[in-house]
Amino acid sequence: MVDREGCIAVIFMSRLRDPAPGYAETAERMVELASSMPGFIGIRSMRDADGSGITISWWRSEEDIAHWREHPEHLEAQRRGQEEWYESWHIEICHVKKAQSFPP
Amino acid sequence: MVDREGCIAVIFMSRLRDPAPGYAETAERMVELASSMPGFIGIRSMRDADGSGITISWWRSEEDIAHWREHPEHLEAQRRGQEEWYESWHIEICHVKKAQSFPP
Q1: pLDDT surpasses 80 at B50
Q2: Hey, which end of chain A has fewer CB within 10 Å, N or C?
């Protein structure tokens, strides 16, 4: 486990519309693309059967997140998310102050 | 949606052993108990069929989190978690710098 103290965590919580055609493919592509961006550290995603989801991604700096936010393919995915897929979303940009793991 | 800028988010990621008898009842009780603590703002939890889970709780201050961490019933749940339920866990204490929602 990378020591994540000092990193930036982006918490993204959403609820999908039902149906949300094309969402799954795009989400998969965005994980692939984000993983190739400078400053990307990791990502963890979970979605309930009711369409609620949590995705947390970790980045080296807010500047790296700004670059990712403005990637053309990501901008297009954000536009489609807003117009076609998400009923609602909430995002938080967080500074990781302490981290601990078990087993250590 | 409460404006969470300036709050502390606790990201707790875990993997349960299989089986984990008594875990579900204790988890439910801990949500109830945490919700009654000073400085508690909210909690969001999700668990996959494979036993992986993410719980995020939001607090007013690190001091409030310290009180919650030391609550006797919570200490006992932490002990059992370590000894009986969790295969692994990772926790991060984060300062929420920016938050945004849709619909606004």
Answers
A1: yes
A2: C
Structural domain contains residue B101? no
Domain that includes residue A54, residue range:
8-95
Say whether pLDDT at A2 is over 90.
Answer: no
Q: Collect all residues of chain B within an 8 Å Cβ-Cβ radius of residue A102.
A: 82, 86, 88-90
Tens digits of residue pLDDT in A43-69 = 999 999 899 999 999 999 999 999 999
Chain A interface includes B93 (CB < 8 A): yes
> Which residue in A4, A48, A91 is closest to B46 by CB distance?
A48
**Amino acid type, B54:** I
pLDDT per position as a tens digit, A11-31: 999 999 999 999 999 999 999
**Cα–Cα distance between A15 and A2 in angstroms, integer?**
29
Long-range contacts of B73-77 (CB under 8 A, 24+ apart): B73/B29, B73/B30, B73/B33, B74/B30, B74/B33, B74/B34, B77/B26, B77/B29, B77/B30
**Which of B28, B33, B11 has its CA nearest to residue B94?**
B11
Number of domains in chain A: 1
CATH classification of the domain holding A82: 3.30.70.100
In a domain, A101, yes or no: no
